[in-house]
Amino acid sequence: xxxxxxxxxxxxxxxxxxxxxxxxxxxxxxxxxxxxxxxxxxxxxxxxxxxxxxxxxxxxxxxxxxxxxxxxxxxxxxxxxxxxxxxxxxxxxxxxxxxxxxxxxxxxxxxxxxxxxxxxxxxxxxxxxxxxxxxxxxxxxxxxxxxxxxxxxxxxxxxxxxxxxxxxxxxxxxxxxxxxxxxxxxxxxxxxxxxxxxxxxxxxxxxxxxxxxxxxxxxxxxxxxxxxxxxxxxxxxxxxxxxxxxxxxxxxxxxxxxxxxxxxxxxxxxxxxxxxxxxxxxxxxxxxxxxxxxxxxxxxxxxxxxxxxxxxxxxxxxxxxxxxxxxxxxxxxxxxxxxxxxxxxxxxxxxxxxxxxxxxxxxx
Amino acid sequence: xxxxxxxxxxxxxxxxxxxxxxxxxxxxxxxxxxxxxxxxxxxxxxxxxxxxxxxxxxxxxxxxxxxxxxxxxxxxxxxxxxxxxxxxxxxxxxxxxxxxxxxxxxxxxxxxxxxxxxxxxxxxxxxxxxxxxxxxxxxxxxxxxxxxxxxxxxxxxxxxxxxxxxxxxxxxxxxxxxxxxxxxxxxxxxxxxxxxxxxxxxxxxxxxxxxxxxxxxxxxxxxxxxxxxxxxxxxxxxxxxxxxxxxxxxxxxxxxxxxxxxxxxxxxxxxxxxxxxxxxxxxxxxxxxxxxxxxxxxxxxxxxxxxxxxxxxxxxxxxxxxxxxxxxxxxxxxxxxxxxxxx
Lengths: 364, 343
Hints:
The complex is a heterodimer. By secondary structure, chain A is an alpha/beta fold.
């Protein structure tokens, strides 16, 4: 027993030292940053522990995002320990998750600050405790280098502009647009609305329903109720804009119940939505679909940034993640609407995490 | 002791006694209908009515479960966990395959029975405070939600979508399920010996004990019956929304208590009013659709809902006769009035 244990300890020490040596040997002498051989350039030689914190992990989008983050972390052998925590939509839990990780001595934190500015004090205290703190996607307020290391945001204004351009092409003379987003006041929805207005401003484009968006909390049951009420209240809805496309699949059949065609939809992608489009296109003459990539890969940029800062690797040039356009049912550019019937509905074909890997995750 | 026996007044003019809670809810619904007709007529489109009956039915089922616990003088805070777990099991176990649905039903019911027995043991037998015990159970249930799903439920199967989201001659299936649940709860509590004992224990556990009733069993098992109803609600919700999320039970906690109180059941325990609870759920559901159709901002919606709740409870919680000066009549508070009356 004892000898076995000793052997394995010695083996472990050997492996550890060889990894460390590899790190040293590959470090170029003339540069401020260095990277580990065989790893991407953002992976420096310093050993660190990294924590990934989610504010709300309760849907498949987040599952894919979390795993994309973990996949990115795994590319860098200098990250010796990786931890994950889910705030479950509870701001207080999210804050104590951050404090807990700082207490455990992590070197870098990548945080999805769902609660926005409510998360700022916790982020700041982590940053002040010397932890590399990288909030991503949702803007928590504050400033880079003062309240946290850097915010790696998604550019939701661009999403809004991409949607609006499609609307403009399809409805040159104007349109009634119903815009659905998540909880009241979420910055993602506000930015998307800004983006749409910058393109469609004035003229004959009219946003119907509550401004800046109809509140759905990204809850499918709520979305269904909101959409049903809107269909009854507004006889002419030309376009539905939504920042979580797959959550509409349960609600869109409301149009059929009302004896109307599903209108043009501008949103984010999802396998279930693509398949829904293909199944329902024929019966709904006005149903056109344009999607932007749903942005699961935003987390990769945030992880790269945090790891680079903490391990001494090469810091990425940009801190803004711009989601590319993904599907367009009219022009087919850059892609026609995608559907993989053989794979589960809740995967995202736009993600870098391969469709089959996502399917395996979800089948788990 | 007499306090507990002084139940909500019951109107006695008609042959069938109707609870004041039910009358209040019916009047409130009619008032809301009339109001909607003038300021938010879009609420009467078939779609909206369908959606109202669908979600109202789900809330009614949850409310009936909560009522069974409340009438035993308890309160069940494990609603969010129980409903979320039922949703997750209903979509996770079959994993998109219709053939897996029967297994999902069995597993879901097994968890519901487990949670119910746990609450029954904690509250009924070792007499922990219901708020504390069920809050703990709720945390355990969310643990199970995360363990089973990793926080992420799958898409519902087609069969489940048809069962829960379909309709029979225009009436949503979910609403029919709610009617069946109502009929069962009403018959079992009002028309069977064991049900009458159940109500007796709720009205006065000490008296029940003196009569030789198994009070602990009745109080404890109310938590089991309620879990079965929560499971049904979660199962239906999973089918109504094609792509459910893992925490969809959370918004149902407060409404579940609200419909019980609005329906006329006292939070101190006593008689249960299943029909009142049922219509209270429909009222809250309609209020939801009404404020949506009104098109007012989200903040105003929340305020209107809160105001309606407060008003509804006030209407029959206050002693209007006393407040208006008594009008010379003494209130009939005879204990026999309602403790074991049919409702």
